[in-house]
Amino acid sequence: MAQDLSLGGLLLAADALSVLPDDVGHELHTRTDQALRLWEAERTSKGAAIEAKAGAEFPHRLNLWRAYLQDLAEKPNEAAAYGTEVRHRVIIERLLPILRGSVGAEARELARADEQLRLRFRPGRFVWPSELEQVYPEGSFWYLYGGPSETR
To answer: Going by C-beta distance under 8 Å and a sequence separation of 6 or more, which residues neighbour residue 78?
Structure first.
């Protein structure tokens, strides 16, 4: 049974596909390039619908991210799950350009959540597979370069 992919999940999949290693087959590179071009065409032709989907997903991802940060504040051992949970924060970042500034109060909530994380954050190594570093530069995706302290 096929599972629907959220817009955020699709954006992350497209990011991962954009950095396929050279040693994968030519056919896979060709199919990946075709899929990425199709996605760009859809983004252009169905921009309003995609923006609406992003608008619906954004608060959901923000709530999940804030809930994780709250759990982390109460139970520092939740830091072990950071590499998985930070996916919500990356998706939020990837949705922002699609929303073109129409997030208002949610942007302020995101800023508060980022400040909450910064209080515990220790800069360090990239938390996801190294081939994705070129997709997620440290300036915009600072929270992927380190993690929360396991102490309060």
So the answer is: 68, 71, 72, 85
